Amino acid sequence: MTLNDLVRQRVRKRANYYCEYCHSPEQISASRFTIDHIQPRSLGGSDQLDNLALACRRCNQRRYNFTVGSDQKTNLITPIFNPRTQQWSDHFIWSKDTLRIIGTTPTGRATCQRLDLNDERYQGDRNIRETRQIWQQAGWHPPQHDPIQND
Ligand SMILES: [Zn+2]
Fold first, then answer.
1. Does residue 145 fall inside a structural domain?
2. How many independent structural domains does the chain possess?
3. What percent of the chain stands above pLDDT 70?
């Protein structure tokens, strides 16, 4: 079963057109973001709005059907961030230069690890930190109201 356009539009609008994991803006992306199933369909997750989140293609690919990640501080396996039941700002903060997302809780750190939110494993010719720098110069980054590290 595929999600209908009305459901997709509701998810996109609810997310204010940002990826709900890495906070990339959909509106300056060449292609529309994807609809992520928080509890993957392959694990019995539903198509209901409370199980859906807007995710950029990077985050959706890396998330695959994983629901947990490793907290790099404690090495404990921890559920990743759930945009429906948790607040982004309770688990993440932007680095002072706003190019890196820092997990401030076990959930935040496990999500940074699982989704590689700062492209620390990526070996391509451009990574998300360089892209964020370009957005920042253009005045599109970081999203308004996101917390930023201050020391
Ligand atoms: Zn993303």
1. no
2. 1
3. 98
Reply yes or no on whether the pLDDT at 16 is more than 90: yes
10 Å CB burial of residue 73 (0-12, 13-18, 19+) is: exposed
CA of 21 to the centre of ligand 1 (A): 5
Q: Write out the residue range of the structural domain in which residue 16 sits.
A: 5-138
In a domain, 147, yes or no: no
The set of residues, in sequence order, having a beta carbon less than 8 Å from that of 95 and lying 6+ positions away, is 101, 102, 148, 149
Residue 52 lies in a domain: yes
CA-nearest of 91, 17, 83 to 56 is: 17
Instruction: Report the C-alpha gap between 69 and 78 in whole angstroms.
Output: 6
Query: What's the CA-to-centroid distance between 20 and ligand 1, angstroms?
Result: 7
Question: Average pLDDT, stretch 84-93?
Answer: 98
Distance 22 CA to ligand 1 centre (A): 4
CA–centroid distance, residue 67 to ligand 1 (Å): 15
